[in-house]
Specification:
The chain has about 350 residues and is α/β, with parallel strands linked by helices. The protein contains twelve helices and 14 strands. The chain is globular and about 60 Å long.
């Protein structure tokens, strides 16, 4: 079986790479010997992380078309898929695959009709895709063998767009990552000096300058409160390691460096595989998280969590979570120089 997987891969995004790890493991456990080709912006990075073949999704590339035409299955694997341009490309690729007799699967995708370019967006009311793109989505999704979405917002967007087929709502695939045993992870924890003490994990996402400033101001005061309560190690784990200069919102290290100006002892972790990142969550006593999958990792590890919400997807995720250990802070409520 030859499987081609479409997603937000190669961008240095821990959450999307976690989704890919789960898909690969699932197929291997069910079908055994599977030949994978991953569509990636950075094939070398993807091959290094997952040890499978990867190519760029480039319509002028013979390598891409060779891989696409030889495949039996096309999977659109999880993650947030934003805006008309993204869904036009996905729908056309899915329709072509269907016409060529390939199996098409949409697996736990997030469906968000608005464009996202690094500014906070919380859309409480689902809206449909309209016009030609809406038609292409209806055709592509209706022809797929299996369709699942990761939240009710995405389900309603597809329904409002006119998709009438069966759609499953399933958890983000990153929830299927198994939490590693602490004993297997100890060497990594020792490397970063977090094997003992009271450890606070921080993950923030780089957004526009004014939002960064408000978030850092708020988080600095949070950290100071945790230090007063006996926390003696502060660790920043980037869930986005950056890809291109103009995509500042992919690079958590930008806001990490802003935070370290106020917290000089901040430990910043380097790029790790999703399972290695999850390893470290065993050692945290509290997590402050903005990234969607940093929130998921905290929930997986059953750690007390302060979630700073900047996007629809994480608000949707936490609507289904009821716990005294989870505090939700909307980014729109943060004001520079004042508490949320």
């Amino acid at each position: 079986m030859r499987v081609i997987i479409h997603g937000y891969f190669g961008f240095g995004n821990v959450g999307d790479e976690a989704i890919l790890s789960v898909i690969i493991d699932e197929f291997r456990s069910i079908f055994g010997d599977v030949e994978f080709v991953i569509l990636s912006i950075d094939p070398e990075r993807t091959m290094r992380l997952h040890h499978v073949k990867a190519v760029k999704e480039r319509l002028t590339s013979l390598n891409f078309w060779r891989s696409f035409l030889r495949s039996h299955v096309l999977i659109f694997a999880g993650g947030g898929r934003y805006g008309y341009a993204t869904w036009r490309r996905m729908a056309l690729l899915a329709l072509l695959a269907s016409l060529l007799g390939k199996v098409v699967v949409f697996r736990a995708v997030g469906v968000y009709p608005y464009d996202w370019r690094g500014l906070p967006v919380i859309s409480e009311k689902p809206i449909p895709f309209k016009g030609l793109i809406g038609l292409l989505i209806r055709l592509a999704v209706s022809r797929a063998l299996y369709v699942s979405v990761r939240d009710r917002y995405s389900y309603l967007v597809l329904r409002l767009t006119g998709v009438n087929r069966r759609i499953i709502i399933e958890k983000d695939l990153a929830f299927k990552l198994k939490l590693p045993d602490p004993s297997m992870c100890k060497a990594l924890a020792v490397k970063y000096g977090i094997a003992g003490g009271n450890v606070l994990c921080v993950n923030l996402r780089t957004l526009d300058y004014e939002t960064n400033r408000r978030v850092v101001n708020y988080v600095v005061r949070l950290i100071q409160d945790f230090v007063k309560r006996g926390f003696n190690k502060i660790v920043f784990i980037p869930f986005g390691l950056g890809s291109f200069e103009d995509r500042f919102f992919d690079d958590d290290l930008i806001i990490a460096k802003m935070l370290r100006e106020h917290i000089p002892g901040l430990i910043i972790v380097e790029e790790l595989s999703p399972r290695s990142v999850l390893c470290l969550f065993n050692y945290f006593d509290h997590v402050i998280a903005m990234r969607h999958h940093a929130v998921i990792f905290a929930l997986l590890a059953k750690k007390p969590l302060t979630a700073i919400i900047y996007d629809t997807k994480t608000l949707e995720l936490l609507k289904g979570v009821s716990s005294d250990d989870v505090r939700v802070v909307l980014i729109s409520n943060l004001r520079y120089g004042s508490d949320a």
